[in-house]
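Here we describe the complex-level prediction in full. Unlike the single-chain runs in Section 2.1, the two entities below were treated as one system.
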Amino acid sequence: MRDERVAPSCSTTEVVARRFAALLCALVLAACSAGSLAAQTGGAIAGRVHDATSSLSIANALISVDGGRQGAASDTGGFYRVREVRSGWHRVQISRIGYRPVVYDSVLVRSGETVTLNSELTALALQVESIAVTATPDRVLDPMVPQDLQRVTGEEIRKLPVTTVAEAVALSAGAVGESYRGGRLGEQAFVLDGIGVKNQLDASTGAIGLRIPPDILTEASLVTNGFSARYGQAISGLINVVTKDGGDHWEGRTALETDRPLPRGWDYGIDRFVVAGSGPLGKGIGVVGVLDAEGRLDADPVNAPPPPDARDPRNANPYLLPHNSGERYDAGLKFTVPLGTRQTIRLFGLQSIDQQLLFDPAFKYDPAFAPAQRVRASLVTGQIQHTSGPDAVNPLTIDLRLGYFDRSFFRGALTDQPKLEAGGFTFSTFHFLGQDLARRMDTTAARSAVPGFVAPDFSDQSPWGVPAFFLGDGSRGEIAWNRFREVRGKLDVTLGAGRDADFYLGGEIAGQHVQTFQRVFAYLPVDSTIPPPTASDFKPLSAAAYAETQLRVQDLAFTIGLRYDEFDGRLPAGLGGKRFGAQRSINPRLAVSTVLKGATFVASWGRFSQAPDFQYLVDAAFDDTTRTGRFREGNPALGFESAMQYEFSLRLRPTDHTSVRTNLYIKRLDGLVASVPLTLDPDSTIFGNTDFGTVKGVELIFEKETTHGWGMRIGYTLQTATATATNAFQILRRIRIDSLLPPGQDTIFPARVEFPLDYDRRHSVTVIGQGRVNDGAGPRLFGQAIFGGLEAAAIFHFGSGLPYSRTNTAGDTLIGLPNSARLPPEFSLDALLRRPIRVMGLNGGLYIDGRNLLNRRNTLSVRRDTGQPTLTSGTLQAIALAAYNAHPEAIPYESPRYRQWADLDGNGLIEGQNELLPLYMAAARDFAQPLFYYGPPRLLRLGIELTF
Amino acid sequence: MLVYPKPVAHCALVCLALACTHDQPMSVGIYAPGGPFGSVVPLRLTYNPGEDLGPVWLPDGSGFIYTMERLDRDDKDRCLVLMPAGGGSIEREICDRIPAADDSVDAYGTAAIAPNGRLAYVRGTASFAAGWPVTTHDQQLVVGTLADPVTVRVLLPSIPYPSPSGRVHQGVAQVRSLNDTSLVYVGQQVSYPAVCMGCVLRDTLASGLEIIRLDFGSTTAALHVLPGTNQASSVAVAGRDTLLFTINGDTRILRYTLADSAITVVHVFGGGIARDVQAGGGRLLAVVGGLVSFTPDSITGGVQRDSGGTIVLVDPSNGNETPLAAGSLFRHPALSPDGKRIVAESYVGGSRSTDLWLLETP
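The structure predicted for the assembly as a whole is:
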């Protein structure tokens, strides 16, 4: 056992001064050169080999990783560096003729980090027992790690009260859900085993669709300050995921989570089943497979208060929303196949299916007509890796990766309501009305009313009966389908030039295929009031090339990179009226890091760009209830969206087991897609690269490593994010100066006014604590230590309120500036308790996973007119009266709308304002009750897992 | 590491895997009344401010279909609706739901239901741009199914139409299902006389001309005028080969045998003009007397005006007549298949609105 930590020595003022000078040089260099930061699927193993007796350096020692698949030889100074070692555990042997070899059988390499193995050899040619290495790199102070990298491993996810990789990544400082550092949704890229995967069609409005089962995960990390020039397609952050390789012995895990045994009001219909296994297939072939399935009777539970009216069925059963169930299936399979001694092939397949019935308040009493949606995503990747032998003068690693990504999305009305077979599971595929028409993208046939659709009418199933607010008989008539496919090829070359320099070169090309279809009000033929169906079918082409180098001078490291991106929508001529060529973007990146007397300082600068969602290249029709138009004209001339970021980081280690990281950043956003009105008619709006903004912030991360049974991490972010629009469908607001100043002072439209973005969370704090009781500790019962081996993890999250815009009662006029009001702050406490067990000879655990344990009713949004989730009584009366005036007709006894309790004079007719208006009031109150304005309630689940 | 006894571990596994089912989301209740409003026979079944017309029973007697005027809808459409046999809340509506047609009155009526679920009905459209529908246009006799009444075969593509007898049928009434591929109905003349001198408001006056058998077993519907049915005012099916019918201005119920076109007298009422004959469950009834008049016409043969009469039950075995709810005026009664219930139209009070009433046979 050894515990070696690389703590760069910086003991003299002279050294510090020299490094400052070097840093200054680097910053000057940055002004005229380019740089980048690394976020990789692998790390490096480096160190020095010396004689145990004489301490003299040993040259030409052979460092062999995993039986020689990778390696290096020490130089005359005894130094060596093995590059591009995949994240995970590795076996390292250091040998030299005439010396006893040393074997390290458990070296943990993490992406973007360098493990330091300084080894001393003794002059005996005998094999020794394997030595377990516990040495880990000091990733806090390591100047070779320039990026702000917040990492979580698959094992950590298992121990924390989180279920998905996305939830785990969202715990990072600077993240608000899937918005990173104030950016819009979809400004991040997803890199899986070194190859980028992005829903390039509609990332800003739709999920990628792929979910990595945590059981196949080695680690996931979020890089927010900058990332390697190897990766593009993102301007806010990079989520880097590394999956496991099959090991040399069989192992597996199965787990079942459910809340079935919990009492009413605690049972939200959650079931999750996981089975995972990995092991060798012989001849060095390894396999990893996992199936992760989750069903929920309420896939989007809300902590909304029950309605006060006892006649409202939610009054007695406020916990689960009807027609809101969902099911997810994630399955992954990976093969690792060695070819000879220098090549390895990795084949990986992942499929995720997410089906959900969507609760629509208008269809509360006729849920069969409410919409549903399905997202199916598949990814197949292949990687072949060639590494040079340990004795190569300039170690070379070549990675060739191919990936195929296929994502399809459908939302609309179902042909038949699926039967829930077990909890939220239907075990069947949703079928949508107009599905075939959409897939054929038949806009001609779709101009007529689409068969199967029926116009909705006011429901007669509500307790109030009156023809108002609630709909039935037919759906809203939406058909939304799209499919995005991509074949991507990527070549990465890593070349070592001595122990102090690495060069990275490469490029990628992606052929894409976009198909979309949208139809609204499908029960009506297209006419002057019904927008025509829109469809698109085009094959964009994207390409990129990069060059990057990392240079090390003692504890000073420079990372300099340049990335070139281009995309060509290749829209068919005529769709946009004209053909447009490729859009291009050059993105230099630079980072300089050094050690300053117990701290590491990193300065980085970079330009990042991403192609806009391809959905904005073509027309969009949608049913917009905010009445800001239902049509946007596509713009095939859209160019890259970009960001320029400056960041300074300081990393400290106050004690051996604690660390503090501080990041100060400024990000300028430019060219983001927004809707630009051409005339006063909102349907004349066109997409354009017109949005710009600024994000500034500071992140403070304190970490206490897990020692003496407990560990902790505290992250705090102070941030301000402003721009002119938050999403591309938002019409660029024209704020007159007299809205900003006292009336009458000016009437011109200001050219550049920025407002808080929807994800502008000023303060956020995340505290993660973990602990474990020693096996034999604590009181005993029947000879067993009750709390022995108990593991506990808790996550506390606080976030100040997000901004929103106030409007007048009609909703057509802003009160104050956009996003000038703030929601109340929100917080939650999640916890997981796990007790190890042994069942039928297998190890395992029983656990309880609780979310929002305090059952805090977090307000996620409010009505823009009231600033509260609820309507005022005056507004309620007004909308009830308006509904009554629209339908003042008497309701006869035989009508399904008749409610005996409302027939005050008992004449078989509910007639007149005296009898009808109370029904309209109750209906208005029911319809307006806030549901999705609140976050999730307390959710508990019990779990059992077995490992084998 | 805790080592639990196997039974405990097994119990934990079984409890988790096979625990009781999940709670369910809120479910929608039944808020409409489950039965009729009251219990005294004759029982008023409908309170609709609009017209409720032309009840016909389902073959299994579980309910009946009638035409309901939807004054609560902007387009004032008339829909076929299904009510359970004992009354209560409407269970189903068959309406024109094409929003593009909201600028006109679309009326579904004169329904006939066959034992195999086939549903024939007349659909028509009237413009109410002038303030109120005066004449219908685009009338058709169609046949679909009760399960899918919208997907239909058009049997009479345009009404008015020339009948094989040479007369023009301006309306189709009393549609009855004869068998799987045949209907019978009364072809009518329809006029719209002004209700007063110089009035814009007009009445709709329909009067029977003859009985038509319509065979639609082949691709082309074939019309046959039943000889001897001139001036028929109503028709009922009394068996595979037998029809009952009445004639304008006549007090008799006549039998028509399809095999040989023979006509015989079944019953002669002593109380006035008989119409709206019905047969079922071994019983026979007709509306007799009341506010009815017949005006002979040398060209058309005559016009019968009917504002309702007394429902009279006839015992076929001895010819005894039993008036039901004497003093009340009914039209278009429908006798249930078991012969125990009658649903009929009746005016209520001074209202011009027609509602449906339920009567029971003794």
